[in-house]
Amino acid sequence: MKTLNGKHINLRALEPTDLEFLFETENDESFWEVSNTQKPFSKHILIQYLNNAQQDIFEAKQLRLMIVEKNSNTSVGMIDVFDFDPKHKRAGVGILINSTFENKGYASEALELLVNYGFLHLDLHQVYSNITEDNLKSISLFEKQGFKKIGVKKDWIYSNKTFKNELLYQLIND
Fold first, then answer.
1. Would you say residue 154 lies in a domain?
2. The domain containing residue 125 runs over which residues?
3. Which residues is 81 bridged to in the sheet?
């Protein structure tokens, strides 16, 4: 699919070979704050997840795609569509890049590809993202892609015995 192929990366569906990447990522406690995770995932649970990951987005209301470096065919991260609402033509988007591959432009390219895919193939009118106010990398990424901050959810995330504000970013397809 041309829409999901970029200059340096491709976005692709999950494969059984992604098990180790998912296991390492989902069990990295530094990501639990944004993923709303509170306990580790077993490989057994992740295998079940992979077996069900091919469910249609219109049924599952979510979609996870792997971000794959073109030159090496290495998985560098994941990008998610969540809360897909075809009636109101909107969906949330979240992105995660493995720290080894940060600052190479992969997140920006992946976000651009996913937004274009959402507007073109999913007939979305808008996409949004929820970002804690201390996540400056994500704020910069989404703002560079044209997302606008439209609100603040006060004390929304409780992490490390403190509350954090969460910012709501939105991009509307005019």
1. no
2. 2-130
3. 63, 93
Task: Considering only CA atoms, give the Rg of the chain.
Answer: 16
Instruction: Please check whether residue 56 lies inside any domain of the structure.
Output: yes
Give CA angle at 149 (144, 151), nearest 5°: 165
pLDDT of residue 31: 67
Q: What's the pLDDT at 36?
A: 65
pLDDT(151) > 70:
yes
Q: What is the token pair recorded at 137?
A: 């990398």
Q: Which of 21-35, 65-79, 145-159 has the lowest mean pLDDT?
A: 21-35
Helix axes 19-26, 43-52, angle to 10 degrees: 120
User: Who has greater pLDDT, 145 or 44?
Assistant: 145
Task: Report the amino acid identity of residue 29.
Answer: E
Bridge partner residues of 63 (DSSP):
81
Report if residue 161 sits inside a domain.
Answer: no
CA–CA dist 113, 101 (Å, integer): 18
Q: Tell me if residue 1 falls in helix, strand or coil.
A: coil
Type of residue at 166: E
Domains in the chain: how many in total? 1
